[in-house]
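Private note to self, pasted from the team thread so I don't lose it. Backbone tokens:
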């Protein structure tokens, strides 16, 4: 990474960590990549800093390799899993602490979300639905017939040959048909 020691007080990564485990060629060494990454990250973080990595492991061996390498480099912490019973919504978070926290501060892992992750859906309030329905009727259309006629006239002035002729249907909305 090339940063001075103790530069950062935290680090966040989303869906990147699993790519360090990629070994599609014989020259790629995932353990070496992980060891180099975690050791330079540990040096660049202040003591007591936190690092959180959201990742999607291929298998349990990959999780063990990532966690083991991070612990060897001096980090403490662990793995937090959101929605452990769901295959689609399951997310893995590696929560790491770099060294000891300040006196009086506790370093503890957050709790993961429970359930299957897909049953709740999004809850909208009635005001949002009401505003959305009335907003369409009150808004003036951006591309009305006058706008279309101006664009056609501009194209004709620029010398374009394939400009459609004006008619009484110019700029009208078409009926939705499937």
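Design output:
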């Amino acid at each position: 990474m090339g940063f001075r020691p103790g530069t950062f007080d935290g680090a966040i990564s989303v869906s990147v960590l699993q790519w360090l485990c990629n070994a599609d060629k014989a020259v790629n060494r995932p353990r070496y990549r992980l060891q180099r990454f975690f050791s330079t990250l540990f040096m660049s973080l202040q003591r007591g800093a936190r690092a959180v990595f959201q990742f999607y492991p291929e298998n349990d061996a990959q999780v063990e390799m990532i966690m083991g390498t991070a612990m060897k480099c001096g980090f403490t912490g662990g793995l937090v899993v959101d929605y452990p019973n769901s295959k689609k919504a399951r997310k893995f978070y590696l929560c790491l602490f770099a060294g000891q926290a300040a006196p009086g501060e506790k370093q503890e892992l957050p709790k993961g979300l429970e359930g299957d992750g897909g049953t709740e859906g999004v809850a909208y309030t009635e005001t949002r639905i009401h505003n959305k329905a009335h907003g369409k009727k009150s808004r003036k259309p951006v591309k009305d017939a006058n706008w279309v006629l101006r664009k056609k006239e501009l194209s004709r002035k620029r010398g374009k040959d394939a400009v459609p002729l004006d008619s009484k249907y110019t700029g009208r909305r078409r009926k939705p048909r499937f």
